[in-house]
Amino acid sequence: MRFRTMLTMLGAGLLAACGVNSVPTAEENVNAKWGEVQNQYQRRADLVPNLVATVKGYAAHESGTLTKVTEARARATSINITTDDLSDPQQFERFSEAQNQLTQALGQLRTVVEAYPQLTANQNFMALQSQLEGTENRIAIARRDYNEAVQAYNTRIRTFPDAVGARIFYGAKPKVPFQAQAGAETAPTVDFGNAS
């Protein structure tokens, strides 16, 4: 009887040491952080139509830029990535690229807006612009938090003793973190138009 109790306690201790609870806990943390990333991207996508409509009223002949923003938003919202896809680098790259295209299109829109002082004085536009800037900051924070959760999860499933339980019980695969956009290491050229 005493031997069985000791064997049961030893077995429970070994299971606990093998990541039986810590691996799913870490994975749920990654999934929750991913949910926040998606939430912030959706918030941005929801703001874009109102921003485009406001700009359209002032800058009707800038329809090319407005079309690019609208198309980029459509691409960004059409790529859905689930928590199961977080271990698939190709799916993750498709999602990330679509979001980066929307970011670039919004940057072009900001450039257009600067040519219309009456638009930048419009209260509705200013409120939308402020919300969009705040959302971009929230996206950056959500991506950072997601990457930290991915790092903790990936470390847990690759290190002993949790790696044993991660492979045996869960078949755990590393999650894909966000990475810098290609060319991000190169500083943009700033030209104030006063070349001599």
From TrEMBL:
UniProt keyword Transmembrane helix, yes or no: yes
Compartments (UniProt record): Membrane
Keywords annotated in UniProt: Membrane, Transmembrane, Transmembrane helix
Membrane topology: Single-pass membrane protein
The keyword Transmembrane helix is assigned to this record: yes
SUPFAM superfamilies linked to this entry: LemA-like
PROSITE patterns: PROKAR_LIPOPROTEIN (PS51257)
InterPro entries xrefs: LemA-like_dom_sf, MamQ_LemA
One Pfam family from the record: LemA
Recorded GO CC terms: membrane
Matches recorded under PANTHER family: MEMBRANE PROTEIN (PTHR34478:SF2), PROTEIN LEMA (PTHR34478)
Family assignment from sequence similarity: Belongs to the LemA family.
Name this polypeptide is given: LemA family protein
